[in-house]
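Title: Comparing notes on inverse folding

I've been comparing how different people in this forum approach sequence design from structure. To keep things fair, I'm posting one structure and asking everyone to reply with a full sequence. Here's the target:
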């Protein structure tokens, strides 16, 4: 679907009538004084500033810390819509976990010719250290974020899979807490599923993946690169909410075949490490020898059953956007079912014929780096200048294997609060999924990112986007 198509408005139908999911909210909103709503909008910004809900924007020159823009109008999903989404998300997450296990073992999907071997051969996310090893409980993707976009009443697509270290769950939780504090009466009128129990469920899910050498109640810790990391706020927030220790590399060492953390009573073994450090920096003895962010020898402890690392090293192979283009085949191969949630049509620039098509149509396409994230390293053709398109053309010709292209979708819109009233803006959604030997659990909500600039399709916070609370209605 092209950007020229009128986007689907999630709140109002083409005749301007409020859709059923928004009926309760719309009635409440119409009853409120406009000046009071404007004060509440300022209050929300003050809450986020006071709480310190920020992120870092990296550039070649410097790193700038910014406030996360928050919109106080919720994005609302009906119970029926959510049931449909959760079935598709669970199917996809189970397939992803089976796919990663297969890649590090018999590679049946490659033998069957469903995925080309070249996608592994020179892939930086592929870890030979994981070949033949199965993580505790058989779980690779303990925490998953599936990015969804909507283009019509029943048209949801998966835009990206985030199986490495998906971020943003702290914003989901803070958005809800802020909304409940500001509009408690609204939640008594509209029945909304809770998201506040996510940290408790995360702690329980991680503990269920404890390694064989764990004795008694599992000890869970969150490994952060430190205060200068763009997501440090989230690392500290989740550790605090889970009742887990927040640790950095100097706090950990290998003692008697276990990874132990420094405490006031000496070093104590860690059973499950929720790491927010990339594979490359996790173990200087196995990967980057110059890393100061990881634990020397942790991979040996991991392979010997002394610790669980979440997410498992090597899961980044499933974040690859070239592999994403094969997800319909991957889902069918491991589940025996057609995907319940389709992919966005994807052109693999590594193919010469496809590359020619992409180069001929750059002005209409979105082009992304295979390993890119955060809205960086991408081209949105319809909103780019001739010079930007020409510059990107040179990059594509020089290294086509590094890129995929997709049509410019008419992302659905949700209302945002402006000084002149409600106005539609484009959105996407990242639901958060927990996986353990006990099953798959999907939080009823997620992080809705919104392009606050009128007409913009880029929702990333680093590119001027904001967030809003996501409501899943109760039946």
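Reply #1:
Here's my take.
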């Amino acid at each position: 679907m092209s950007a020229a198509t009128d986007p689907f408005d999630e709140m109002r139908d083409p005749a301007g009538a409020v859709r059923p999911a928004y009926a309760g909210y719309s009635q409440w909103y119409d009853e409120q004084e406009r000046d009071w709503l404007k004060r509440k909008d300022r209050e929300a910004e003050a809450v986020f500033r006071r709480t310190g809900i920020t992120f870092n924007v990296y550039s070649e020159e410097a790193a700038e810390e910014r406030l996360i823009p928050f919109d106080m109008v919720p994005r609302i999903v009906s119970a029926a819509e959510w049931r449909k989404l959760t079935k598709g998300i669970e199917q996809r997450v189970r397939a992803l976990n089976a796919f990663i296990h297969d890649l590090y073992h018999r590679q049946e999907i490659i033998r069957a010719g469903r995925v080309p071997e070249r996608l592994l051969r020179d892939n930086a996310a592929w870890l030979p250290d994981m070949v033949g090893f199965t993580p505790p409980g058989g779980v690779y993707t303990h925490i998953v974020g599936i990015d969804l976009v909507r283009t019509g009443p029943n048209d949801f697509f998966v835009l990206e899979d985030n199986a490495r270290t998906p971020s943003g769950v702290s914003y989901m939780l803070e958005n809800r807490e802020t909304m409940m504090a500001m509009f408690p009466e609204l939640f008594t009128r509209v029945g909304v599923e809770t998201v506040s129990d996510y940290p408790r469920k995360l702690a329980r899910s991680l503990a269920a993946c404890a390694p064989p050498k764990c004795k008694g109640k599992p000890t869970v810790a969150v490994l952060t690169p430190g205060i200068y990391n763009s997501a440090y706020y989230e690392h500290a927030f989740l550790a605090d909410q889970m009742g887990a220790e927040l640790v950095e590399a100097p706090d950990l060492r290998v003692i008697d075949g276990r990874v132990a953390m420094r405490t006031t009573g000496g070093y104590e073994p860690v059973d499950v490490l929720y790491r927010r450090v990339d594979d490359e920096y996790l173990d200087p003895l196995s990967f980057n020898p110059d890393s100061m962010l990881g634990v020397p020898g942790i991979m040996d402890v991991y392979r010997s059953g002394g610790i669980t690392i979440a997410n498992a090293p090597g899961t980044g192979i499933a974040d690859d956007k070239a592999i994403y283009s094969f997800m319909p085949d991957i889902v069918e191969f491991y589940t025996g079912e057609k995907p319940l949630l389709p992919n966005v049509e994807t052109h693999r620039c590594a193919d010469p014929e496809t590359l020619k098509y992409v180069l001929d149509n750059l002005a209409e396409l979105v082009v992304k780096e295979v390993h890119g994230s955060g809205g960086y390293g991408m081209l949105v053709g319809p909103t780019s200048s001739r010079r930007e398109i020409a510059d990107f053309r040179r990059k594509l010709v020089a290294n086509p294997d590094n890129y995929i292209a997709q049509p410019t979708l008419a992302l659905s819109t949700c209302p945002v609060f402006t000084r002149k009233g409600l106005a539609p803006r484009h959105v996407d959604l990242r639901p958060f999924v927990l996986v353990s030997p006990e099953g798959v659990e999907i939080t009823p909500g997620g992080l809705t990112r919104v392009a606050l600039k009128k007409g913009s399709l880029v929702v990333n916070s680093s590119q001027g986007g904001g967030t809003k609370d996501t409501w899943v209605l109760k039946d």
